[in-house]
Amino acid sequence: MSDTFNALRIVDAGDRKTRAEVTQMTLADLPDLPVLVEISHSTVNYKDGLAVSGKGRIARRLPMTAGIDLAGTVVESASSDFQPGDKVIVNGWGLSETEQGAYSKFQRVKPEWLLPLPEGFSPEQAMAIGTAGYTAGLCVQALLDWGTPKDGAPVLVTGAAGGVGSVAIALLSKLGFPVTAVTGRPETQEYLGKLGATAFLDRAELAEAGKPLQAESWAGGVDVVGNHTLANVLAQTCYGGAVAACGLAGGPALPGTVMPHILRGVALLGVDSVMAPRAKRVAAWDLLDKHLDRDLLGTMYSVHGFDELPKLAEQLMDNQIRGRVVVEI
Fold first, then answer.
1. Alpha-carbon distance 235 to 239, whole Å?
2. What's CA 196's distance to the chain center, in Å?
3. Which is more confidently placed, 2 or 256?
4. Residue 125 falls in which region: left (phi positive, over 0), alpha (psi -120 to 50) or beta
């Protein structure tokens, strides 16, 4: 192992702002946690974009190594659950927020954060999925558990060209659901069609305040936007349907009414990926392993170098990235 290695750290920039900088670190600089992992790959999620660009105060303490996802190999372990040489992944668990993150050649982590790398995926593919795709897995599993019907009305997916949306469309289509993709970028429709979307809706049609109850259009939904978009999706969901909500790209408000819930029995299923219990994580990754087409996955992501992270974060914040980004650490 090299004596020093690079890490992308979030540091104080004054006036309650932060900035990202590359820092030379040693193993002695890492937190005192039981498992040392050599990281091979990570990715760039929405939270990563906020943190690295400085457009959101994600880190709760500074300095903080950024990056909420990692794939790598165990180097040292004080836990009987993992041995040197084990291939592992981590999604969430406060990495880059309250715990030191993944944009580093090495990181020490708690064993309960780790999952064995699913046998069906390489480290690169696992990070092409990352927290965004794993969250999509959680959402789709929630809809399956609820009992969303496959015949009749389609399932609506907002933020369709993003990481969560792309994987959700691919999974839902593979499972036999008709899917309507919501996007504000017409140029992404060909890509979304290849993932399995059968119809498209301009995001502007959902972005403004609507009636408490609207025409029943969707058997269910996966929403990453929140605000008026989520309120409208709920108001348009068919009797007995459900919407899995996992994001707030459009803001944290929910300016709707109880009417879809008490008159149509529509369920709002909240999905958290950061602290999700192990059983739900395993179920989501099993769903991805069984139903996510590998050739299709290959069309969803691009691979970049560690030094490109600041540029990638800015592009993500400017809505210039389609699908998923893998970073070789």
1. 10
2. 19
3. 256
4. alpha
- Beta-strand relationship, 199-202 and 35-43: unpaired
Kindly report whether the global pTM for this prediction surpasses the value 0.85.
Answer: yes
Q: Which residues span the domain enclosing 207? A: 132-270
CA dist., res. 180 & res. 301, Å (int)? 21
pLDDT band at 151 (very low <50, low <70, confident <90, very high): confident
In angstroms, the CA 183 to CA 156 distance is 11
Phi, psi values for residue 277, rounded to 5°:
-65, 160
Residues 246 and 139 in one domain: yes
pLDDT tens per residue, range 20-32: 999 999 999 999 9
- The 10s digit of each residue's pLDDT in 73-82 is 999 999 999 9
Q: What is the per-residue pLDDT for 116?
A: 97
Q: Is 309 helix (H, G, I), strand (E, B) or coil?
A: helix
| Burial bucket for residue 51 (CB in 10 Å: 0-12, 13-18, 19+) | buried
- Report the number of distinct structural domains present in the chain: 2
Interatomic CA distance for residues 7 and 105, integer angstroms: 7
* 80 Cβ contact partners less than 8 Å away, ≥ 6 residues apart: none
Instruction: Give the end-to-end CA distance of the chain in Å, rounded to a whole number.
Output: 15
Measured at the CA of 6, the angle between CA 69 and CA 323, to 5 degrees, comes to: 35
Claim to verify: residue 11 and residue 50 sit in the same structural domain: yes
Tell whether the model's pLDDT for residue 1 goes beyond 80: no
